[in-house]
From TrEMBL:
Gene3D superfamilies: P-loop containing nucleotide triphosphate hydrolases
Name of the featured protein: ABC transporter ATP-binding protein
GO MF assignments: ATP binding
Organism listed in the record: Actinomadura fibrosa
UniProt xrefs under InterPro entries: AAA+_ATPase (IPR003593), ABC_transporter-like_ATP-bd (IPR003439), ABC_transporter-like_CS (IPR017871), ABC_transpr_LolD-like (IPR015854), MacB-like_ATP-bd (IPR017911), P-loop_NTPase (IPR027417)
PANTHER family referenced in this protein's UniProt entry, alphabetically: ABC TRANSPORTER RELATED, IMPORT ATP-BINDING PROTEIN
Residue intervals of the ABC transporter domain: 8-242
Keywords for this protein: ATP-binding, Nucleotide-binding, Transport
Length: 243
């Protein structure tokens, strides 16, 4: 499969906070269509900030972020909200499902937010894509943690986003369930050319990605193609020693 188009591009992105806190410093990186990238680094190295800036949830202090051909950094608030809603998917460690709604209703929420009628076929396809076609009428309390995270992923994908950002998506799951969710993400990249960017602390999780980006003190410290849990662990040890 051709995987040439850069879906997300960060150019010299920095994010500074008050009192001299540097969360990101001069980060330039591109994410091409259909690729699955893991972002790793010690605690406080800027991983979540990178994701938030790339997703348009936060504005960098300087630099440029282009998503799906559009420059987020010069975009007004309303256009940015629309782009985030239509072209960007996000999953977090917490599943953030509404407990009173069924899986299908939860998945349909982003469509409602865009003023569209929740299309049952689209919702069904999203649930099928995460292997939960038979759980559409279940409420979150009737689903396992892994299934709830898969509903959250189906919800993030229902608008067919250009990119799916995942911040520690397996952080609240046990080992076996984590593997299921990671295999699902891998499959979405392979079978649907879904671009995925995932923050994780877990070298085994990172090994499901096509490459791993390493951050330390807000700066990029190289990347690792075709990672394995062992190569990721070695790089992380080196990074932590250097910090
Ligand atoms: N709203 C904020 N105000 C001030 N400083 C912040 C803010 N958000 C993040 N920071 C700081 O920016 C740096 C990077 O934070 P970030 O959450 O991106 O790191 P992280 O690598 O995701 O950390 P962790 O692995 O612990 O979740 C940290 O020093 C953090 O304290």
């Amino acid at each position: 499969m051709e995987r040439l188009e850069t879906v997300v591009e960060l150019t010299s992105v920095s994010k500074h906070y008050a009192h001299g806190v540097v969360a990101l410093e001069d980060v330039s990186v591109g994410f091409r269509q259909g690729t699955f990238t893991a972002v790793m680094g010690p605690s406080g190295s800027g991983k979540s900030t990178l994701l938030q800036c790339a997703a348009g949830l936060d504005r960098p202090t300087s630099g440029r972020v282009v998503v799906d051909g559009r420059d987020l950094t010069t975009m007004g608030e309303r256009k940015l909200t629309r782009l985030r809603r239509d072209r960007v998917g996000f999953v977090f460690q917490a599943f953030n499902l509404l407990p009173s709604l069924t899986a299908a209703q939860n998945v349909g929420l982003p469509l409602r937010l865009t003023g569209r009628r929740p299309d049952p076929e689209l919702i069904g396809q999203s649930l099928e894509a995460v292997g939960l076609g038979d759980r559409a009428r279940h409420r979150p309390a009737e689903l396992s943690g892994g299934q709830q995270q898969r509903v959250a992923i189906a919800r993030a994908l229902v608008t067919r986003p250009a990119v799916l950002f995942a911040d520690e998506p397996t952080g609240a799951l046990d080992t076996g369930t984590s593997r299921d969710v990671l295999r699902l993400l891998r499959g979405l990249a392979d079978a649907h050319a879904q671009t995925i960017v995932m923050v994780t602390h877990d070298p085994v999780a990172a090994a499901y990605a096509d490459r791993v980006l390493f951050l330390a003190d807000g700066r990029l410290h190289g990347e690792l193609p075709d990672p394995t849990a062992e190569t990721v662990t070695s790089r992380m040890l080196l990074l932590e020693e250097a910090c």
